[in-house]
Amino acid sequence: WPIGLVQVNTDYPFKVGNNHQVLVYGFERNGRRVRLLIYDPNHPARDDITLDFDTSVTPPVFSYSVPPGGDGRIYSFFCHRYQQRQPPPADQIPPWVDFPFPNPLAEGTNDIIVANGWLGLLRIERVFGNRFNGTIYGQRMEGEWNAGTRAIRFTRFLGTDYEQLYTGVLEIDPATRNLTGRFSGSFQEIHGGVTGEASYDWRAAPRLLVDGNGWQTELRLHRLDGDGSVAGEMYGDAVNGRWDHAAQRLHLTRSSADRNYAQEWTARRTDGLSFAGDFQEVVRGVRQARQYRWMAFDRR
Predict the structure, then answer these.
(1) Which of 93, 137, 143, 194 has its CA 20 to 30 A from that of 12?
(2) pLDDT tens across 174-213, in order?
(3) Is 46 helix (H, G, I), strand (E, B) or coil?
(4) Closest CA to 275 of 236, 221, 227, 238
(5) Which CATH class is domain 110-205?
(6) How far is CA 226 from CA 122, 223, 245, 300, in A?
(7) pTM for the model
(8) Cα–Cα–Cα angle for 186, 189, 190, nearest 5°?
(9) In which residue ranges of the chain is CATH 2.40.128.30 found?
(10) Helices (H), 67-113
(11) Distance, CA of 70 to CA of 86 (rounded, Å)
């Protein structure tokens, strides 16, 4: 039987999205040395991924290899008990949905941004040539971008003597060389005209891709206020909720045409613009016990 393993690279709460499940489908043994043959969903076309260790060493030292040039140490593995399950009928499998990448600099776009752990909206209110203006986190913003280099820069105005300068690049798909709709970079603080040495990461996207129990959609936010209040849409329904900055947790209520039915969604931000959590149905005001997994991310 194949063995499912969870590859654990980190226990840092905002980086747990780096951990993922892999599958052992075979092994080779030479004396006390063991080599496991690994299927890794991050590298679906590879059949040469291995995990090596020596059983004569206590504790054993694991070496995870994705050749060429992908060697790395693994902190720990956990084995999952395998259970055989019959796949569902084809007509019950959620369809694959392909969402086109929207233009993050189009007028009227509300880009979801996270900068140094702070979640908010970057609103593009007006575009003229290669320049644009609007708001970021509710404060005035002005910027420009270079179509040739894909470089972007904009300034957030917070007061008479305090600004933040954001620089970055519009990302492209390395395979198709097309724009992905995402952009990222770093920002610096400017006090009294003097630019600080420290820089902080940021990234933004016009929407998040959502997988809720296998059903895919987009999450678009129309409002994210300073008090954490959130409003947007998902699966064609309105969602309202709250962003808890201290806990880095997003709470959403998905409404429906049926007043007796709703869904409560919660997730923790794992890294960048990636979220993972669960949702529950609420029937006639009663939260149901069953939980369903969901994820949101700014890339496929």
Answers:
(1) 137
(2) 777 778 889 999 999 999 999 999 999 999 999 999 988 8
(3) coil
(4) 221
(5) mainly beta
(6) 13, 10, 10, 29
(7) 0.69
(8) 135
(9) 110-205, 208-297
(10) none
(11) 35
pLDDT tens digits for range 211-252? 888 888 999 999 999 899 999 999 989 999 999 999 999 999
Distances in Å between the Cα of 47 and the Cα atoms of 22, 29, 51, 235 are 13, 18, 12, 37
Residue found under tokens 């496991």: 36
- Hey, is 146 helix, strand or coil? coil
Which strands form 3-8's sheet, in the order they lie side by side?
Answer: 72-73, 63-65, 49-54, 33-39, 20-30, 3-8, 76-80
The residue to which tokens 């993050």 are assigned: 104
Which has the closest alpha carbon to 80: 145, 3, 17?
3
| Alpha-carbon radius of gyration of the chain | 23
Residues in the chain: 300
Tokens for 52? 């090596």
Give the pair of three-digit tokens for residue 77.
Answer: 């593995």
CA dist., res. 29 & res. 36, Å (int): 9
The CA distance from 154 to 166, in Å, is 5
Q: What count of other Cβ atoms lies within 10 Å of the Cβ of residue 298?
A: 22
Say which DSSP state 92 is in.
Answer: G
First to last CA, the chain: 30
What are the distances in angstroms from CA 272 to CA 13, 125, 231, 277?
A: 12, 24, 20, 15
Architecture of the domain made up of 208-297: Beta Barrel (2.40)
Distance of alpha carbon 263 from alpha carbon 31, whole angstroms = 55
